[in-house]
User: What shape does this take?
Amino acid sequence: MPIYRIDKLGFRNQATLRALSTLMAVMLLGGCAEEAAPIPPPSDTWYRAVDQQSHTFYPLPPYIHSPVKTEHLDEAITAMGDGPLLQLSTSEAIRYADDPLRTVRELRPFLIHGLYRSKRLFNISIADRALWVDSADDPDDSTPTHRQPIVLYIDEVPPDVYVTVGWRLAEAAAQANADGETE
Assistant: This one.
């Protein structure tokens, strides 16, 4: 049985060592490539970023809010203007709402701002003095934003209304990356 000479690193010939060195150089350079630039926030006047330091948000149940029907979209956008919310009558809310909303008598209907890119799905949360409306869009989606008023039944609307696009998903991804780096 022949005995092979193995150099200090355990490689049998120079070709294997060169191939491994080349592979390591490519991996190192690939890891140093620039990351894609984040999607800038929408320039829409309805957009308002969250002041995260001052609020702890709690999600509202999905059965108390619904996007306005597409056939009433322009009417609702015009009615709202740039104000973040507008109180509705019950008959207006029923006419605007996409889905039959289950409510209790103590809750009043409001029309609130919403922005989305590709998905007309929203996460709505509340804090002591703030309401946060965030679309369920991918944070890396570069599709232009669209205005989407939302009918929301709530007892009292807080004075601060934040409207974002895919922020919650971006935060979750950032937290997952941070947790992965610490392990």
